[in-house]
Amino acid sequence: MKKFLRNTLFLALSILLLVVVLGGYIPFAKATAQSSDPLPSWNDGPAKQAIVEFVKVTTDKSSPKFVPPKERIATFDQDGTLWVEHPIYTQVTYNIERVPALVKAKPELANVEPFKTVLSGNRQAMAKLSIDDLFKIVVATQSGMTPQAFSAEVNQWLATAKDPRWKRPYTELVYQPMQEVLKYLRANGYKTFIATGGSAGFVRAYSDRVYGIPPEQVAGTAQPYLYGYDKNQQPILTREPKVVLNNMEAGKLENFWLLYGHRPHAAFGNSSSDDQQMLEFTNAGEGARLSVAVLHDDAKREYAYGPAQGLPDTKVGTFSQAMYDMAKKQGWIVISMKNDWKQIFSFER
């Protein structure tokens, strides 16, 4: 038995020595890791190649475009970039459904616009509500509660609410190709952030669970908090009915810098009305930069809207021809949902 064990050990050590001498062990592991496709839901093409090449040159220490780990920051818009935004933003749907409960608690709002229009149930009238009207609804329906209570309400709603087209929870309408990009970047040392025009508190309720992005890395339109005490005289924070940070348009960039103090090396968006400033500011930085704009041009599998490239015009997630031309001129990557994504949602077969 001792002779058998000795011979076995000798054979194992001999094999290990041979592998190390020939350089076969570690290179084989690397080859295996590198041969796997980090973006399997993407069709091969310029968009996919650009993302892979960006990660390669910014994480290779021998590359002149190497980015130190502490500077590897990538930011993503949410609506229309990470998940479906049509025909209306998910958060707006949530807030509209909260109006009846709000009016029950505050009956004086029943005859006040825009709450009166929402209570009427007239979808055509609601579709004509202005951005200011929607802001009034958003602020009113998510004020007067603690951050924890608001987060619990959001997650309770998300657990049962379903999109009318796909009949699935909104959290399943996340773009699988973008999920792969998030994971790919994080696997290569990038911190991933969300910069959204929506409420920071709304997105933070589920960002870690849905995207793997912790709440402290979510920047959005924000309401102030009021310090006070509950009925048991315990200190609490209460959401105030006003906006302290408007994360729309250039505010998305201004607030990102205010909160984090960095220019992202990569930015992903889709809207000329809300994401253009973030994309062009990212692209203007020194060294390797990646600005990516998602063009919704697949009416069959998702939606098609622009009006860039002759697509239907829209007030939700507008992608103007001017931004499209800017993207081409400045070397941004424009993702065609129709041509670049072989799969849009994880539940597709």
Task: Please explain how this structure is put together.
This protein has helices at residues 2-22, 25-35, 46-59, 90-105, 115-120, 123-127, 131-141, 147-160, 176-187, 200-204, 207-211, 250-260, 276-283, 321-330, 337-340, and strands at 73-76, 191-199, 218-221, 225-229, 235-239, 266-269, 290-295, 333-336. With 349 residues, the chain is α/β, with parallel strands linked by helices. It folds into two domains: 38-86 and 166-220 and 246-340, HAD superfamily/HAD-like (Rossmann fold, 3-Layer(aba) Sandwich); 90-160, no CATH class. Helix 14 links the parallel strand 7 and strand 8 (333-336).
- Into which percent range does the helicity of residues fall? 40-55%
Strand composition percent: 5-15%
- CATH H-tier superfamily of the largest domain: HAD superfamily/HAD-like
Poorly predicted sequence stretches spanning 5 or more consecutive residues: 1-35
CATH architecture title of the largest domain? 3-Layer(aba) Sandwich
> Care to count the β-strands?
8
Oligomer: single chain
Instruction: Identify the CATH class of the largest domain.
Output: Alpha Beta
Number of DSSP helical runs: 15
Distance between the termini: 55 Å
Can you summarize the main beta sheet? 6 strands, parallel
CATH topology of the largest domain: Rossmann fold
Mean pLDDT: 90
Computed Rg: 24 Å
- Overall form: globular
